[in-house]
């Protein structure tokens, strides 16, 4: 399985500001995903990030609010823009390694918006 | 309509017992099935994958798949307090992977 790191691991932010979360993988992967998990809830897919193309967003998530970059096969960022307390959640990146159809998760970023 | 359904629990079993976790799915085109374990405050960790009907065993874990009934289960034998976690069922098609809401398991010493 891939080794995945995320930065920051946690942050407390003020309403109206933006936070960029980084996801780094130790090997090249085609598919990277960004999820949100609110306390006691399951995973909600925000978007799929493919290198060299625009991210594909799930219903209810828009690029203006959650811009994503995927500059190469080992790195992606998710920005949470103009934050409100409702954005308080754990944000997880995951990857699908070549030749396997399952996903491996990073450690997550715990975001609290005041 | 939920696509992957799990009993949210909590499911409580005594140490040493068998814990049985169940999952149903709606997409008959689903091809791959996974169980993830998520400890509180941690990210999901893949523990089992299964692709064909029948049973697949890995240590104390057994995954069971019945595609005709659209049902997948996870059995944990000789349950330990360290097995206490939320277990997520995931179902994949050619295009995506969907997660259930998870079942919270507590193993009591």
Chain pair forming the biggest interface: A-B, 14 and 18 residues
Q: Gyration radius of chain B, to the nearest Å?
A: 13 Å
**Spatial shape of chain A:** globular
- Characterize the overall form of chain B: globular
Order of helices and strands of chain B: EEEEEEEEEEE
- Largest sheet data of chain B: 6 strands, mixed
Number of helices of chain A: 0
What is the number of beta strands of chain A?
11
Provide the structure class of chain A.
Answer: mainly beta
The percent of residues in helical segments of chain A reads: under 10%
Mean pLDDT of chain A: 92
β-strand percent of chain B reads over 45%
Portion of residues within helices of chain B? under 10%
Oligomer: heterodimer
The Rg value of chain A, from CA coordinates, equals 13 Å
Summed up, the helix count of chain B is 0
N-to-C CA distance of chain B: 38 Å
Give me the strand/helix succession of chain A.
EEEEEEEEEEE
Main pleated sheet of chain A: 7 strands, mixed
Show unreliable segments of chain B. none
Account of the 3D structure:
The complex is a heterodimer of chains A (about 110) and B (about 110). With about 110 residues, chain A is mainly β. Chain A is about 0% helix and about 50% strand. In chain A, strands 2, 4, 5, 6, 9, 10 and 11 form a seven-stranded mixed sheet that branches. In chain A, strands 1-3-8-7 form a four-stranded antiparallel sheet, with no helix packed on it. Chain A is globular, with a radius of gyration of 13 Å. Chain B is mainly beta and about 110 residues long. Chain B contains no helices and eleven strands. In chain B, strand 6 and strand 7 form a beta hairpin. The mean pLDDT of chain B is about 95. The interface of A and B includes residues 41 and 105 of A.
């Amino acid at each position: 399985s891939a080794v995945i790191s995320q930065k920051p691991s946690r942050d407390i932010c003020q309403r109206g500001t933006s936070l960029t979360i980084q996801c780094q993988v130790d090997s090249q992967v085609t598919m990277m995903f960004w999820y949100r998990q609110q306390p006691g809830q399951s995973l909600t897919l925000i978007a799929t990030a493919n290198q060299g193309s625009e991210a594909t967003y799930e219903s209810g998530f828009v690029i203006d609010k959650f811009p994503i970059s995927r500059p190469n096969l080992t790195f992606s960022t998710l920005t949470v823009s103009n934050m409100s307390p409702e954005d308080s959640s754990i944000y997880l990146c995951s990857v699908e390694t070549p030749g396997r159809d399952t996903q491996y998760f990073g450690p997550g970023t715990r975001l609290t918006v005041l | 309509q939920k696509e992957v359904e799990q009993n949210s629990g909590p499911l409580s079993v005594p140490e040493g017992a068998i814990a049985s976790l169940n999952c149903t799915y709606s997409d008959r085109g689903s091809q791959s099935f996974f169980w993830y374990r998520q400890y509180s405050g941690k990210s999901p960790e893949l523990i089992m994958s299964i692709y064909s009907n029948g049973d697949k065993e890995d240590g104390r874990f057994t995954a069971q798949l019945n595609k005709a009934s659209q049902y997948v289960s996870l059995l944990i034998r000789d349950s330990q307090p360290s097995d206490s976690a939320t277990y997520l069922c995931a179902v994949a098609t050619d295009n995506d992977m969907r997660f259930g809401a998870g079942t919270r398991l507590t193993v009591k010493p």
